[in-house]
Amino acid sequence: MYLKKWVKIMNNKIALVTGGTSGIGREIVIELIAKGCKVITCYSTNEENARNLEKEINSDNLLILKCDVSDEKQVADMFKEIKDKFGYLDYLVNNAGTFIDNFIKDFSIDDFKKVLDINLLGKVICTKYVYPIMNDGGSIVNISSHLGVVPCTESSAYCVAAAGIINFTKATALEYADKKIRANSICPAFTPTPLSLKGWKQEEIDQKLKETPLGRFATPEDTAKLCLFLLSDDASFITGENIWINGGRLWQDEDIYRWTYKYFFLYLKLFLS
């Protein structure tokens, strides 16, 4: 019964998913199509992934466009094409991203800027251009990362972009509330995808698994299902939130909690003395 209700809610809704031809974005596209949505997705360079997705889904409800989300002109042209063909959008999922790892002292500024341009600025540009064509009561979901909350070494550009996404989402929720447009972000934990596996050694991956209480990694399906909930009317009073998908893992948060409790009890002691 609940599934039928959800399908009815999302049937014929029109969604744009950036970076939807691989990884998490691909799964979001598949889930939206399965719920009866008309989906536009875009890719920047990998045409093979785009063609494979098109062949697998084989539906008139899928439109794949080529667009570099960090290029404002390309984004403007994409939104014009969407408006001309569909008239409006109900959902926007800002998912497109890239990953370049290096230590700060070794990072080229061009590489650092590339990560920020695609992962953060791309979401800003798409969010800017969606406003005029998004229906009142629409929904935006930005895919961020746990590294936006708890950073790690050799990933400074990615961490900075992910943190920016979280706060940009909150700002969007405030500014777009005049049209009752909601905006939320998702921070998936380590999810084995072609993008996330770049730069990780097997022993590091094994250690991450040991630190996850539920005993498995997040999957693209986990994030996709949460994304669909946040897009749907069932989440109509949720906006400005950042939601983790981490299997109960506390990350280096053990250190955060340890320091939080330390200072809490210190202040309590001073207050009561």
Provide keyphrases for this structure.
9 helices, alpha/beta, 48% helix, globular, 273 residues, seven-stranded parallel β-sheet
Brief synopsis:
It contains 9 helices and 7 strands, in the order H-E-H-E-H-E-H-E-H-E-H-E-H-H-E-H. Helix 4 runs parallel beside helix 5.
Describe this structure in words.
With 273 residues, this protein is an alpha/beta fold. It has a single domain (2-272), classed as NAD(P)-binding Rossmann-like Domain (Rossmann fold). The protein contains nine helices and seven strands. The protein has helices spanning 2-10, 23-34, 47-57, 72-86, 109-130, 156-175, 202-210, 220-231, 253-272; strands at residues 14-18, 38-43, 62-66, 89-94, 134-143, 182-188, 242-245. Helix 2 (23-34) crosses helix 8 (220-231), helix 4 (72-86) runs parallel beside helix 5 and helix 5 (109-130) runs parallel beside helix 6. The model has no long low-confidence stretch (mean pLDDT 88).
Strand and helix layout:
Blueprint: H1 2-10, E1 14-18, H2 23-34, E2 38-43, H3 47-57, E3 62-66, H4 72-86, E4 89-94, H5 109-130, E5 134-143, H6 156-175, E6 182-188, H7 202-210, H8 220-231, E7 242-245, H9 253-272
Parallel strand pairs: 1-2, 1-4, 2-3, 4-5, 5-6, 6-7
